[in-house]
Design goal:
The chain has about 325 residues and is α+β, with helices and mostly antiparallel strands. The chain is about 25% helix and about 25% strand. The strands form 4 sheets. Strands 1, 2, 3, 4, 7, 8 and 9 form a 7-stranded mixed sheet that branches. The protein has a 5-stranded antiparallel sheet with strand order 16-15-14-17-18. It has a 4-stranded antiparallel sheet with strand order 10-13-11-12, with helices on one face.
C-alpha cells in the first residue's frame, strides 16, 4: 500500500464532547526556560488561550495510587513575555486517568526514571490520549530509530566494546562521530578517526569502560550541508529550518552555539517523511523532529522535539496552533 499524507487520517477517541479539555504536560524543570527556545511553552499557551485547563508536572511528581497514575501537578500560569510564572498555589494531586490528554515532553537523558514514567503512563493510554505514545517513545530510541530507514542512515556501528568500535572505525578509513544513546542537544558527541592518538582513551570513556553502548557513524559535515530539523505532526511535515555549527565546534545544535537559518521543505524531504510516516504512526509518534544532514537521516527526536519558536522566528509560522488543532480533533472537539 502506498502511503501519502492525504491518506493519514486522524482517528478520534470515543469522547463525550465538552467545551474544554483537561491536558497535562510531563515536563522538565521550567524555572530557567527561555520562551523563545521552548516549544512546550507555546503549545501550552495556545491550548490555554482556547479555554482548556492546562497543568504540568515532572517525573519526580509522578506516582501510582488507588489503581491509577497520579501526579502532583501545577496549574499553568503563562506569560508570552515572562514565560512560566510561579504559581501562588502549591502543586495538587491529579488523577491522570481523569484527564483528557497527557503530552509527554520530558527531555533526555533517557534513563531509568524516564522509563518508569513511561511505564506508569502506558497503563492509561487506552482511555487517555497520551502523545507521544509511551511504548513508542520507549521502543524508538532517538539515535537508533533512524537505523530502521536503512537507505537514509549513514554507515553505523553500535557496541559497548571499545576494541570492536576501534576495528569498525579502522575499516571505514574515514572520520566518524561517536554518540551516547541516551542524551540530547549534542551532549557527549565527539568526532574522531582511526588516526587519532586519543582514540583508545576516547572509546573507553564514551563506553564507560565497555559498560554502555554507543553508536558510531560515518561523519557527515554539518559545515558543508547544515543540519536540517524537520517538524512532523501526524505523519505530515510542517516546516524545516537549518542549523549550522559555530566556528569552534562541528556540532550544529543550538545549545552548543549553532546558528539557525531558513530552509525550505524540499521534494526529497517530503518523500523521506512520507516513507517514515507509517512507522511513526504505528508507534504513536505524532509529534516528531527529524534531523537530516545532506541526504542522511541522523536522528529521530520523539521525546521532546523542538522547533516551534524557531520556525516562528524564521518564517512567522505558528505551529502550536496546528498542534492544538490536532489534539482537539483527536479528542473529537
Amino acid at each position: 500500500m502506498k502511503y501519502c499524507f492525504k491518506n493519514l487520517s486522524i482517528v478520534s477517541l470515543c469522547y463525550n464532547k465538552n467545551s474544554f479539555m483537561k491536558i497535562s504536560f510531563l515536563l522538565y524543570p521550567t524555572h530557567n526556560v527561555k520562551v523563545n527556545e521552548d516549544s512546550s511553552f507555546w503549545m501550552m499557551l495556545e491550548l490555554q488561550k482556547r479555554g482548556h485547563e492546562v497543568s504540568y508536572f515532572e517525573s519526580k511528581d509522578l506516582f501510582w495510587a488507588d489503581a491509577a497514575p497520579r501526579a502532583y501537578a501545577a496549574s499553568a500560569r503563562l506569560n508570552a513575555q515572562k514565560g512560566y510564572l510561579p504559581s501562588p498555589l502549591s502543586k495538587h494531586p491529579v488523577n491522570l486517568a481523569g484527564v483528557d490528554c497527557i503530552f509527554i515532553r520530558k527531555e533526555p537523558p533517557f534513563d531509568a526514571d524516564y522509563l518508569y514514567a513511561l511505564q506508569l503512563l502506558e497503563n492509561i493510554r487506552d482511555t487517555v490520549f497520551v502523545l507521544n505514545d509511551p511504548a513508542g517513545i520507549a521502543v524508538c530510541n532517538e539515535k537508533l530509530f533512524s537505523l530502521r530507514f536503512k537507505k537514509y542512515a549513514p554507515e553505523s556501528f553500535v557496541t559497548e566494546n571499545p576494541e570492536r568500535a576501534r576495528a569498525f572505525i579502522a575499516s571505514l578509513k574515514a572520520k566518524v562521530i561517536v554518540k551516547p544513546l541516551n542524551e540530547k542537544g549534542g551532549v557527549g558527541i565527539v568526532a574522531t578517526s582511526c588516526g587519532d592518538r586519543n582514540l583508545a582513551s576516547l572509546l573507553h570513556s564514551a563506553t564507560h569502560s565497555g559498560r554502555e553502548k554507543v553508536i558510531i557513524q560515518r561523519f557527515v559535515s554539518a559545515d558543508r550541508y547544515g543540519d536540517k530539523r524537520i517538524i512532523i505532526l501526524n505523519g505530515e511535515p510542517l516546516g524545516a529550518f537549518l542549523r549550522r555549527p559555530p566556528r569552534h565546534d562541528f556540532r550544529a545544535n543550538l545549545s552548543t552555539g549553532g546558528s539557525m537559518h531558513k530552509a525550505p521543505l524540499t521534494a526529497w524531504d517530503k518523500k523521506l517523511v512520507c516513507e517514515m510516516a507509517p512507522l511513526l504512526l504505528k508507534h504513536g509518534l505524532y509529534f516528531v523532529g527529524i534531523d537530516v544532514i545532506g541526504r542522511y537521516l541522523t536522528e529521530v527526536n520523539v521525546t521532546s522535539p523542538a522547533g516551534i519558536p524557531e520556525l516562528h522566528s524564521l518564517n512567522k509560522l505558528r505551529l502550536e496552533k496546528k498542534v492544538a488543532d490536532f489534539i482537539e480533533r483527536r479528542l473529537g472537539l
